[in-house]
Records
---
Amino acid sequence: MGMTISQKILAAHANLQSVKSGDIISVKLDTILGNDISAFMALEELEKIGRPPLQAARNIILVLDHFTPNKDIGTAEQCRVLREFAEGAGIEHYFEGGRSGIEHALLPEAGLVVPGDLIVGGDSHTCTYGALGAFAMGVGSTDLAAAMVLGKTWLKVPETIRINYYGILGEWVGGKDLILYTIGKIGTDGALGKTIEFYGPTVKSLDVEDRLTMANMAVEAGAVNGIMEPDPVIQNFLADRSRRKGIYFTSDYDANYEQELNIDVFSITPQVALPPSPGNAVSVQEASGIKINQVFIGSCTNGRIGDLRVAAKILKGRKADSRIRLLISPATPGIYRQAMEEGLLKIFSEADAVILPPSCGVCFGGHLGILAKGEVCLSTTNRNFKGRMGHPDSKVYLTSPAVAAASAVRGKITQPSSLT
Amino acid sequence: MIFRGKVWILENNIDTDMIIPGKYLSFTDPSFLAEHCLEAIEKGWSNKIAKGDILIAGKNFGCGSSREHAVVALKAAGISCIMAESFGAIFFRNSINLGLPAVEIKEARKRFNEKDMVEVDLEAGKVRNMASQKTYLFPPLPSIVLDILKAGGLLPFIGKTNPNNFPASYLRSTLSS
Ligand code: SF4
């Protein structure tokens, strides 16, 4: 029996010839990622067992991105603890201040993930790296702590669902629309505890950014990871970024899939996920006209340069409706600089947008742009759970940068094509 | 490991943002987190929970964020065991890792009424509704999971075993089961 990409990566890291779904294995980790929330709690846990020595300090990456720039004294203290830890433990890949951005945008940009890697991260959207052909799964602080100490973890080899996308994408339709549509189809527990393998000619035609957006939201369908076959597009992307070569695994033709699905993308229009679930996808037509108070363009899902270019294309020479707040946050300092050089920030500023620093703040209701009772936000992020971005009685609609920008101009959910 | 307590019933798809919202993630004090646990559903939810009470939920319990604060909050609120139709994958690991048993049981929400007294026997894979006198079976947890729970969580478990053996030491116990 052949193996899938995920099984091959897991077997390689377990030092086994082959693995199959359901096997419980011990694996060596290439990368262990933590942020200011998860790693802080992990250190507290390690404190309780007397701070054992770290066998995997070299593989640890720490990114302070959630409550940064520090929100208040409490978060400043947590960041101080992590800074001192990073210094003491000699963590080479430590990011904060003007070198830090949202972790899942930062790592690919910095070339820190290559195909074939096995990664755990103290953040559920660690699955983003599947777009680069890595097996990457989110964990909590205790698993993170154990991984930091041991450089290993255990896991149960998940079943794989293969989703085959074919057909040509329509105007203003991209990775975000495909993934929202997919979660709408299979449900938020459609891939619970499984791997999704995104496959097919449409996926091959997507650029790296659109692929990252799709893999990012695999967890929203309950998946442990979402993976894509690494190809020349990925190779080109990594060519001048990474010192490591990576291993370009592909799935065998006789690999075993728990389920296979075909999605013809031709009929997919720009999507909006209604609150309070990323699984509530409808076409933008069905949601159009819904009044909004805030629009947010950013996050690990859609805060990359391509996303900002799309938004700028729509916002150029236009202004956000005076009744709404438009917030735009480039996901990393590199993206910020690029946007500056291309004149995108000027377009945003002239459109009356608030340009925010790279940070997770808005996306998880941590700080910056919190919603009041009853307010509605249209957001390019990945979660619209009850109270996600502020008051429990506020609402979040999820969408692409194109729909977000067009809607900012009109002050209500709007089809991008109706503006152009 | 036997747990006895009153049950509280929750819906499907209770996400970790609902269990403890993002604005509280700069706090790690268990009693503070317990105070705000599930407050989006009911203000002061944790006040009605007695130590040892048991949570029953629908499918996909704990989906969403990897925040371990969610488990800390439920535990500190007094919850001794969670039974759900299914769990978010990260939440399940977190729960076991912090020593809070999480058990999958089919149609969990249909089998109990709020405040029924129940008894869960983890090793036997049995739960008894003392009100209806009915017993339901669930697939017993793998021995590795039971071992972690008995130790009180993953880190105490590592502390007890030789860290150099980890995770091989507990893999052996799993594979031999
Ligand atoms: S941008 Fe949002 S979803 Fe992404 S890592 Fe930050 S908080 Fe999580």
---
Amino acid sequence: MTAKNAREEILEGIGRALHGERKAGPLRGEPVPSAPSDLDQLVSEIKKDCEQRRGELIEQFQSELTRVGGRFHRATTAEAAFQYIEEVASVRQAKRIIAWETKVIDDIDLSGKLEEKGIEVLTETADQEFIPAAAASDIGVSGVDFALADTGTLVLLARKGQARSISLLPPVHIAVVKPEQLLSGLSDLFPLLRREAEAEGRDLSSAITFITGPSRTADIELTLVVGVHGPQQLHVVLLDC
Amino acid sequence: MHVNSESFIQDSTVAVQNKTLQTRLRVLTGFTVKRNLLFAELPDGEALRDRAREIKEETIGNLDSYLTQLEENVVRLGGTVHWARTGNEARAIVLELARKNNVQRVVKAKSMVTEEIELNEALEQAGIEAVETDLGEYIVQLAHEKPSHILAPAVHKSKGDISELFADKLGVANLKEAEEMTVVARKRLREKFLTADMGVTGANFGVAETGTIVLVENEGNIRLSTSLPRIHVALMGIEKLVPSLDDLAVFLKILARSASGQKMSSYVSLITGARRAGEADGAGEFHLIILDNGRTRILADEEMRESLYCLRCGACLNVCPVYQKIGGHAYGSVYSGPIGSIITPAFAGLEKSKDLPFASTLCGACREICPVRIDIPRILLKLRSDWAEGKHDNAGPPLLEKVAIKLWAFAMRHRIIYNLVFRMPAFLQGPLLEDGKLKRLPFTLGGWTQNRDFPALARRSFRSMWSDEK
């Protein structure tokens, strides 16, 4: 029983079942990246369209997010975004916050101001083992890569500075979204992801996560319970400045 | 695939009288109501279903090429691809990976394919702890039961049952509300996640062009299973492919709507290879096991092929008048309900599951709701016909039935014999009539009248009345 035998036997079996003696048909799927000129044009059309409809998209995003149990807050300055996060931290009596290491989060300057109030602010490069630190945090603060208006969905790409656990292990997740990150829906997303993949060198990010509302289950008598394995609360701060 | 479908008649007879079970199952209609509302407000909902079916036709029709493409991409990304002809081979691959990496504890996401190959049993026999982490699966595992619904594995259990179970197995007594029980499970399972060496998941989709595995969930346990342990093993049936990301978008729009009446599940994870250099979390090793386990056989049968389009959304279970009365366990297979009644015989053999294709009223509700429009009633009829014609080894109707059908066919072709044979009972039925109805037919015909009355046969046939009128 070698792996190679199983592979060939399965592929041959499929070939016989499908084509008999005939050869397999051509593949329809386009390899990544698809023809750059088309993709460039498509991406710029999507961006233009989303820019023109931004007000409408924000409204729709807010309504869909709220419908699935997320909380929406609009901040017009980095200072206002900080105040909202501070407020959530104080309500939750947070002792420790773990945050992405990206520009949007740096601009809000969490660590500088929160540590004065005795709240520890960590990132993935802190001098501690990361996963236990994230698991012991009360709040995770992240940015996003995209947000989808028609379903109220956040799209997060795993990469250096954007650890997966931050939006997953703490009981509260606060995501900071910039208005220009809003897309109308999934159909806009995938061309942009292809573009991201090109920038990263041919491949998609190792983990792309769509987040639509807080973690939920209905496994006991189909009663909706929020916050089973992932965060119980999802806050979205739209940083519009 | 191991099945217990031979006792379907007995098991379903017991289940159909279980009013408590039916009360539990009634909540599932909530999924259908929400599903219908969401599809009604989706402007291109029906077109999306057509498109999804076309994509499945295209992918399954060139499956060998797409599988090779997926494999190339996963390998290029540093992942390992394993191929398993049978459940046995798949179990052996997981066990070998666990041994090689000194794995003590495995956290498992809900996955029909791991249920199909009975992975937990194999891991436990090898002394490895396998923890189901989906809340419903965790409950079912604690109770040493099998899931009874694709999407809601513990739908057959009441809050009271689960409260007793948690008191008994976890030593936490007097839990009243679903919230409290969920908190207890969260704490227990969080410890398991943080100390597990390996995460095992299924795969809702494999994207050939990018080498991506797509996982759809609501709880976050799949994200934890792929983000925390050092090894991620994904098991995927050969049929789960889509060619490209654009195709994936079509399926993501219809899957959650069909499964749970949500526009989008809480979490969708697109996993493309293992963690890359510089990332702080995510599994460092990624293994994909591609499983056949009878699927190639289904592929070869053109009449059965479309059963491989199934997304495992569970919508057909929720609308099925038979499933609603008997629940999932009576089917004796991990795949229950209408879709189970066609794929269980295909996987395990019709001789082991001959009653399942007959466990349907052929009302067509399953075909109506199926997101990829699988014609389940047609396949049920085909399986019934295969059975009647004895197309399978050691399978076919009993001798008496065969003789009776032969005689019937003979009489139908001979007018005089037909008149003689079929007029006689009208005169002989007298002693059997109660309130003008046949309530108990004699001998082997008694099956007809076990649960319903047979109307009295008319003294005069329609044919003779017709000729009088003329």
